[in-house]
């Protein structure tokens, strides 16, 4: 079958042929229709993610959309190695599939599943979000961050604060408050921290952080300085800033009501991830979630792989 194959660690996939999969007990064969490319799917496929455990060669792709033998449309995640989602067929554990509702097409479902799932899971399962709470989203202009704004609104957030590096993109998100920052400017971190003070003065219930780095530290510092009694669950979801490590003074945590947690492959169960995907699809089918897409053919996998993640690259397999 046609497939996008990663031949060795750290290399991008190339088109080739791979044996058709054969399902064993508990597995199902999926006829793949569409697969989106995300940062995590690319890094895992290349063996460069903390959760990567693969022997090469493999078929690239972490999740996707397709049909079962009886024609049922499903989203699927974590195909059984060495198979991935960027091929005509793949195999997955039957429990790792979610039936698609009417009202959402395959390309949209593929594009929205991973970024929206990460936001939903962080908000619901790690932050224990409740309607009426205030949510701050750091890195809101990316695919996951912009979907987090929509999800927070859909789940009943009272107030949404968005922060990020692109002021014009922040403004179109229609949040209650928007603060842009430039960490490369003189005293950029301090300027951002000071700009936050009036916004967080009344307290923030949840922070969804996709960036980490200096901006995350500035937010925690501002929250500590605000001295509110409201507990803030700070959820680290990604490191899009490129800064894996920060210098976090223990005094920030000791002198505040910040609870710092992570949300990812090990901290959210597979069952909760699939529950998040189902919630995302139901919300999208109601027209409450939107995502910009750029479509690619499977034969153009190398171009798709190197494309920007916004709009979300989606590979139409068949």
Tell me about this structure.
The chain has 318 residues and is of the alpha/beta class. α2 crosses α3 and α5 packs across α6. The longest helix is centred in the middle third of the chain and has 21 residues. The chain folds into two domains: 127 residues, Quinone Oxidoreductase, Chain A, domain 1 (Alpha-Beta Complex); 147 residues, 3-Layer(aba) Sandwich (Rossmann fold), CATH 3.40.50.720. β1 and β2 form a beta hairpin. 31% of the residues lie in helices and 25% in strands. It contains nine helices and 16 strands. This is Alcohol dehydrogenase. One of its GO terms (molecular function) is oxidoreductase activity. Pfam families: ADH_zinc_N (PF00107).
Comma- or semicolon-separated keywords:
single chain, 318 residues, alpha/beta, Quinone Oxidoreductase, Chain A, domain 1, Rossmann fold, seven-stranded mixed beta sheet, six-stranded parallel beta sheet
In short:
This is Alcohol dehydrogenase. It is built from nine helices and 16 strands. The chain has 318 residues and is α/β, with parallel strands linked by helices.
Radius of gyration equals 20 Å
Helix content: 25-40%
Percent of residues in beta strands:
15-25%
- Architecture of the largest domain in CATH? 3-Layer(aba) Sandwich
DSSP helical segment count: 9
Total domains = 2
Give the full name of the CATH homologous superfamily of the largest domain: NAD(P)-binding Rossmann-like Domain
The coarse silhouette is elongated
Alpha-beta classification: alpha/beta
Query: Remind me, CATH topology of the largest domain?
Result: Rossmann fold
Unreliable sequence segments: none
Number of extended strands: 16
Order of secondary-structure elements: EEEHEEEEEHEHEHEHEHEHEHEHE
Question: What's the main sheet like?
Answer: 7 strands, mixed
CATH class of the largest domain: Alpha Beta
Mean pLDDT: 95
Distance between the termini: 12 Å
